[in-house]
Specification:
CATH topology: Arginase, Chain A
Number of domains: 1
Strand content: 5-15%
Structural class: alpha/beta
Distance between the termini: 63 Å
CATH superfamily: Ureohydrolase domain
Strand order of the largest sheet: 2-1-3-8-7-4-5-6
Shape: globular
Order of helices and strands: EHEHHEHEHEHEHHEHEH
Number of strands: 8
CATH class: Alpha Beta
Number of helices: 10
Radius of gyration: 21 Å
CATH architecture: 3-Layer(aba) Sandwich
Helix content: 25-40%
């Protein structure tokens, strides 16, 4: 009798053990072998920039960041087996980018509209933005209740508002560490209630956010300055020019970081706009401003925050450009947030 052999399609394919020293898995965030279902940390993509006020493109940065993430070596000298942190990309929501683009076209077409036409424009954009925040809130709430940590990846800086609403439900009270070139404290900007320039005004109005600590702000208006000064300490802003002048006179970054961390409560969400960095690191961000932090200064700040014993309950990373250099810098920041956030209190440090 003729002996038959199984076809290749019927042979069970045994996956080799994941090698953290080799090339990552194609198409996977950081090349890691984890699914969204098993992940400890979910990266939530929100490709949205409906009210962007200068350069667009941040909503299209996410695929470039994911691609760039696969070039990152997974080793961290400070945490043993850090690659075993189960990080995965959450499923992308259908239609967000298309709706953002539709609103951008609507705004551009009616840029000089007045009267009822302008009023209808504002109403439509503000309604759609509120719907986005409700969606983000519900998605984040679902994942938080499932025991996952979430890092939101924007899009512009308006995107995490719904996330903070979900955190308010779960934690009741927490603080925001806001790294940014801008204060984003306007009541509204260009008439849009939910502009990227007003997201921290909405945060300030949330009862559950006990403290907003801003770091690196160097471009802000009189309204925002007054809001900071009249906040009774609820908004603590470490202006970039003050930090640099103190350094010129001998104050170390380490000492300044300790003052920043001392201003924060026990539970903290990190809200990171990449334009807080030196524009040499993020030249295609939406609203670049001269000055800004070096990469290692931010690494030190985040690691010291974790080492302080504070609980990092969430993070968002927004406003990246889609060009390769911007994407690789943002991907490295994303890896830092995803790996250090869940290791507060119980990390196996070297």
């Amino acid at each position: 009798m003729r002996k038959t052999h199984p076809s290749f399609s019927t042979i069970t394919q045994v996956q080799p053990p994941f090698d953290p020293n080799g090339p990552g898995l194609p198409g996977q965030l950081f090349g890691l072998p984890y699914s969204a279902a098993e992940a400890d940390v979910l990266v939530f993509p929100v490709p949205w920039e409906a009210t962007v006020s200068y350069r667009s493109g941040t909503a299209r940065s996410i695929p470039a960041i994911i691609e760039a993430s696969q070039q990152i070596d997974l080793f961290d000298a400070d945490i043993i087996n850090v690659w075993k942190t189960k990080i995965a990309l959450a499923p992308a929501a259908a239609g967000l980018l298309q709706e953002s683009d539709r609103l951008r076209r609507l705004i551009t077409t009616n840029k000089h509209a007045q009267g009822d036409t302008h009023k209808l424009l504002l109403e439509q954009v503000n309604k759609s933005c509120e719907q986005l925040h409700v969606f983000v809130e519900k998605q984040t709430e679902k994942w938080l209740n499932a025991g996952k940590r979430v890092v939101l990846l924007g899009g512009d800086h308006s995107t995490p508002l719904g996330y903070w609403r979900a955190l308010e439900k779960k934690y009741r009270t927490f603080g925001l560490l806001h790294i940014d070139a801008h204060a984003d404290l306007r009541k509204a900007y260009e008439g849009f209630t939910y502009s990227h320039g007003s997201v921290f005004y909405h945060a300030w109005r949330m009862a559950g956010i006990s403290k907003i600590v801003q770091v690196g702000v160097r471009d802000y208006c009189e309204e925002e300055d007054e809001r900071i000064r009249n906040s009774n300490g609820r908004i603590a802003t470490f202006f970039y020019h003050d930090l640099r002048e103190a350094q010129f006179q001998g104050t170390t970054w380490a000492k300044q970081v300790h003052h920043i961390i001392d201003a924060l409560p026990a539970e903290v969400h990190i809200s990171f706009d990449v334009d807080g960095l030196d524009p040499a690191l993020c030249p295609h961000t939406g609203t670049p401003v001269p000055g800004g932090f070096r990469f290692e200064e931010i690494v030190y700040l985040i690691k010291e925050l974790v080492r302080s014993g504070r609980k990092i309950i969430g993070a968002d990373l927004v406003e990246s450009g889609a060009e390769p250099w911007d994407a690789i810098v943002t991907a490295r920041l994303l890896y830092l947030l995803c790996t250090w956030m869940p290791h507060a209190h119980h990390a196996q440090y070297r």
